[in-house]
Amino acid sequence: MKLEGVRVLDLSLFLPGPHLTMVMADHGADVIKIEPPTGEPVREVGLKQAGVSTWFRNTHRGKRCIVLDLKNAEGKAAFVKLVEWADVVVEAFRPGVAKRLGIDYDSCKAINPKLVYCAISAFGQTGPKVNRPAHDLAMQADTGVVSLNRAPDGTPAMPHMPVADMAGSLMALNGILMALFRRERTGEGDYIDLSMQDALMAWLPNVLGPPFALGRDPVVNEERSWGGNALYKLYRCSDERWIALGGAEHKFAENLLIALGRPDLIHLCHLPPGPGQDPVKAFLIETFSRRTLVEWTLFLHDIDVCWAPVKTLTEAFNDPHTRAREMVWTDEQGGTHLGIPIKFANEPGRINPHLDDVGESTVAVLKELGLTPKHL
């Protein structure tokens, strides 16, 4: 597999760090998860299946879990040995904590100059907000993303995807892989200061026209990406299900409106998103309300229009296409896993469903390093 032979120390908790190191484990990396004595918190968060929380299963499969007390000499000595062994360290402490523990990048680099060290934090290691704690919701709020999620009455709505966490995870993974690639040529490691806010802001290029070009906030309901375009909008069906039109290209507007007998509205779809397209929106609102989602699915099947039914999560993960793409996988114990989204033709990733108990691999890992159980 692509990352076979890469050795990773994961000191992070919750979602961004554990997710990225699981991706590395899926592709062959040897990931050592260093947990506190109480264990990774998400072991006990949310519903469990086959005795394991779904969250933990889908962020920690294939890792070896150890417990070290980094505040005592024995634990610190074991950590030094692990750093000598490792290629990558991932931590998500609040800025300053790693330095107080003596496990910051400078300390680790002195032990292993080839080390790639990734520090994930809310606001990064520099700047006025450096010491502010934040999880996903606060990150989305501070980045302006929550202001884009509006309920029908115009109030901000709770986001339902952990996009700050996942943006941080994937951007950190990119940084680590780039640093490992560069190390192959230079022999030098590197330090990655990964701010979840920075990562989330980097996901917004398609919606920054009003702030960047005009110096104003978007008018959410009038913008292309949030319903201002008639062909990029949600519509209610007669059975209270919903349908999404998801392609605003002119050809899609022409194909749909001709099929619905209203070619006279096509020219309005050439206007900029906003009030100019309101007659088309009004027509589509009334039209889609006449039939059920099933009826619209049959009607649209052979029309070249970008659309999709608004599915529940259960429907989406039971979809034959999802199953054909192997994005749902069940282990022998009945535990359900998210599949591997990166599908290589050569050396594809492989799910290792094993989940260590808290500290299960401590003795074995320390033995590999030539250490004794006194370092527990």
Could you please describe the fold and organization of this structure?
- With 376 residues, the chain is of the alpha/beta class.
- The chain folds into two domains: 233 residues, 3-Layer(aba) Sandwich (Rossmann fold), CATH 3.40.50; 81 residues, formyl-coa transferase, domain 3.
- Helices cover 36% and strands 14% of the residues.
- The chain is built from 15 helices and 13 strands.
- The chain has a six-stranded parallel sheet with strand order 5-2-1-6-7-8, sandwiched between helices.
- Strand 9 and strand 10 form a beta hairpin.
- The longest helix has 24 residues.
- The chain is elongated and about 80 Å long.
- The two termini are 32 Å apart.
- Keywords: Transferase.
- InterPro entries: CoA-transferase_III, CoA-Trfase_fam_III, CoA-Trfase_III_dom3_sf, CoA-Trfase_III_dom_1_sf.
